[in-house]
Amino acid sequence: MRRIMLTVAYDGTGYHGWQRQPDKNSIEDILDQCLTDLTKEPVRVIGASRTDAGVHALGNVAVFDTQARMGADKFTYALNQRLPEDIRIRASREVPSDFHPRKTDSVKTYEYHILNEAFPNPLERLYSHFCYVPLDESRMQRAAQYLAGEHDFQSFCSAGAQVESTVRIIYECSVRREGTKLTIRIQGNGFLYNMVRIIAGTLMEVGRGKYPPETVRDILEAKDRRTAGPTAPARGLVLVSYEFPVLKECAAGAGPRRDM
Questions:
Q1: Selection from 49, 60, 61 nearest residue 195 by Cα
Q2: What is the pTM of this model?
Q3: Residue 178 β-bridge partners
Q4: What value, to the nearest 5°, has the Cα angle with vertex 109 and ends 105 and 115?
Q5: Which 8-state DSSP code applies to residue 74?
Q6: Annotation says 52 is catalytic
Q7: What does the mean pLDDT of the chain come to?
Q8: Is 258 helix (H, G, I), strand (E, B) or coil?
Q9: Is 238 exposed, middle or buried (0-12, 13-18, 19+ CB in 10 A)?
Q10: Catalytic hit among 11, 29, 37, 52
């Protein structure tokens, strides 16, 4: 039995999120069906991130086990011939049989996209959050700096999340503007339920002048969801990438490979 890792990109608009749900269309359901048809064996993928309905991805990760003898890199081409146009496999490779994407240390990168114009742009409506109130990106950037480092992010976690700890490490949190488009980029070792969308909603409150950037520090210290801003809509969120240091170490230690 082999374990294959897929890097998956998708437009989440037409799906009820990543995770399988009874009688609802999900990314996992589509992947399971296409892989089962391809390999002629029952397949259930294991995803790294269970993105919500309407959230998009450029680099979510999933693994599956198979006895198929197809070259690992060939799954990319075979699956893309079967998948709907709003889901694509960007890469496929074989990984150790005990590799689990949710139980392995990783670096995750998200972006939240905001269209900051006077009127909505219909071409942007599915992939960014529209905000007509002028946003001051310099204030947002100063606020974002308080989030970097290891903190208890309980204030930025939706109620009802079942986790052992709300402590996470944020390696980068930045805000940049290109014309009328703002991008909040967040990279960390893990994220709580709706954490990135709550951070985005909070930074937008700072950007519109509701409170000063320093308030974000107070929100962190409060450890109370009620002190943070609203949860920003799903459509602006993109899971950009996953990096697994252990896989890089394996690749570095493997040395040059000679096909027989």
A1: 49
A2: 0.93
A3: 181
A4: 160
A5: H
A6: yes
A7: 94
A8: coil
A9: buried
A10: 52
